Task: structure prediction
Amino acid sequence: MASNGMEIGDLLGPLIRFRRDIHAHPELAYQEHRTAQHLETALRALDLAVHTGIGGTGIVASLSCGTSRRSIGLRADMDALPIQEETGLPYASLNEGVFHGCGHDGHVAMLLGAAQLLARSRNFDGTVHFIFQPAEEGQGGARAMLEDGLFQRFPCDRVFALHNWPDLPAGTVATRQGPIMAAADKFEISIEGHGGHAAMPHQTPDTILAASHLVTQLNSVVSRRIPPTTTAVLSVTHIEGGSSHNVLPAIVRLTGTVRTFDPGVQDTIETAVRQIAEGVARSGDTRITVNYDRYYPATINHADAAEIALEVAAGVANVLRAPEPAFTSEDFGFMLQACEGAYIWLGQGRRKADVPLHHPLYDFNDEILETGIKLHAALVQRHLGVNTEKR
Result:
């Protein structure tokens, strides 16, 4: 396949400019209209079959060569975060309070570069579906695309996604079989009494005290309900209630997150949260409502796909078999529930203590664009093989 450095090199300058333009004009979940329009224009210029409006603002561009019925999907996420950028870069966000603090602008540029390279070479036998997904940041864009018939309309034997990873050195590729990113659950708990004078607590259910008992007991769930050999996290992240030093509030609200890798453990924790809330409500004469939302499943790589990814990556980068999964979450897990595939980390770290994802000073490292393009193209070559038709 035509993928040497010289041929990729002439793509990099325009791609960096494209990436930085997207960075300067970030858009939140399901609002990626400008990003999608610019992508559509670039993809149509390659003579790809371009389909828009999938799952909201999502795009799928398809490229077929040869006669094989084999197919592969490559996915990049497009949305930004509700964070105020503090980088001071010449191409910093022009949209107040919106920022590409997770590098999705880089993911878009890498996948567009792979489409440009593969459209130029066309030396593969089958179909590539370039999937540009909206709303990864907590809004379930992958699920929306699936509900819009993603894999029925664009069947894929396997699907892969890359994510930049500041904890790894630039150009290092890592993945693993099985879980690689955690399931993400959110709980919101409302504790209700009827309020009263703080000097007469015997007349009023104490919602503050009930909330305190809840926080204490919830923080014992992982250590006392989950086997020590299993990994999970439960964190209470927000508590709100009360407005005066001498008033017992009528309502206190708690919010938190749960991260797991095993659906059985996820079930156990949700059950424990509800049982604890019920017990605290009875003991404190309060009414407690639990809203428990399993908004992202665990991202679980299929064994064969993960091994192929590691094998392919060895030809374009330094390779690391990830020793453990991350507790961050990723809605690519929805796609892996519907199609065999793997999620891959692409190192972008420049130094030992690099700026992490979702930090106001974060910026995607343009130096890894070439590695990402080569890895995408190599995955296509490995899965689809060579087009033997005369070109």
Remarks:
- The two ends are 13 Å apart (CA to CA).
